[in-house]
Amino acid sequence: MSRSLFKCTVFFPSLTLFAAFSAPAMQPLITDDVDTLGSGGHQLEVAYNWDRTRWNGETERRDSLPLTYTYGLSEAVDVFVGIDYSHVRISGERSSGFGNTGIGFKWLFFESEASGTRLALKPEVLFPVGSGRERRGLGSGKTSGSLTLILSQKVPFGSVHFNAGAGRERYHYSDDNTTNRHFSVAPVWDVSEKWILALNAGIDLARSGEDTVRSRFAEIAAIYSPGQNLDLAVGYIRAFDSRHPRAMLHGVTTGVTWRF
Question: Which of 102, 211, 89, 187 shows the shortest CA–CA distance to 148?
């Protein structure tokens, strides 16, 4: 499941990594891969995300529980729906509630066994939250969306995944809608049949009005598979932006993926 990092809230200026969109990735990575479930496959992902963002002398504490269900519509197409519940705290203020519901699909449109190269497209639509929840920083109050191009390449140690995408977040109480561009890479090491280790890094460009903010992130992650259809994941993330003073985030994510 993709990780939500900097989010637009009532507490912090608009700074949203493209990863704020809720489409599923190889949990706990931010970068997605091209893998699909196959026709008739089901997948349930649940995670706990612990994020702390410091900006201009203030610290935002965000704890979230994202949930994503994915269904294999065909061998090459998955459809998914996801939502999360967040609790946000800063300067004595607290806010809790559900964020935007996201729906979308992943289409594996190119595959070469000879080169080990695969390509996929992933569009997603985010449905608006109510006006009260937007004011409390839990989501965007107008319909938003994203589109991601995914490339996965087999290599001797495992695989490398690349993402390039664009999205737009629209707000009910602000004309400063945010246009996002995202570029990231994740090398993944197949250590054994049960263990996978990964690095993840990328840059996000968020444009709101006349301002463009660059956000960079890095993540280390591990995935343990006690069985063929069950994954346990943990990751640690650091991120910072280009503002002065800059916002700094560090976070931990843990999750379970169950295929059935």
Answer: 102
Give whole-number Cα distances, 45 to 14, 148, 248, in Å: 28, 20, 27
**Residue corresponding to tokens 């008739």:** 40
pLDDT tens track, the chain, 260 positions: 445 444 444 334 333 444 444 445 678 999 999 999 999 999 999 999 999 999 888 899 999 999 999 999 999 999 999 999 999 998 888 999 999 999 999 999 999 999 999 999 999 999 999 888 888 878 889 999 999 999 999 999 999 999 999 999 998 877 778 899 999 999 999 999 999 999 999 999 989 888 888 999 999 999 999 999 999 999 999 999 988 888 899 999 999 999 99
User: How many residues are given for the chain?
Assistant: 260
Q: Is 8 helix (H, G, I), strand (E, B) or coil?
A: coil
Rounded Cα distance between 81 and 74, Å, is: 16
Range list of H helices, 105-217? 131-135
Q: Collapse the DSSP code of 133 into the 3-class scheme (helix H, G, I; strand E, B; otherwise coil) and give the result.
A: helix
Calculate the CA dihedral of residues 21, 121, 123, 250 and round it to 10 degrees.
0
- Number of Cβ atoms within 10 Å of the Cβ of 94: 10
Instruction: Judge contact between 227 and 256, C-beta under 8 A.
Output: no
The span from the CA of 192 to the CA of 220, in Å, is: 17
pTM of the model: 0.90
Q: How far apart are CA 20 and CA 182, in angstroms?
A: 11
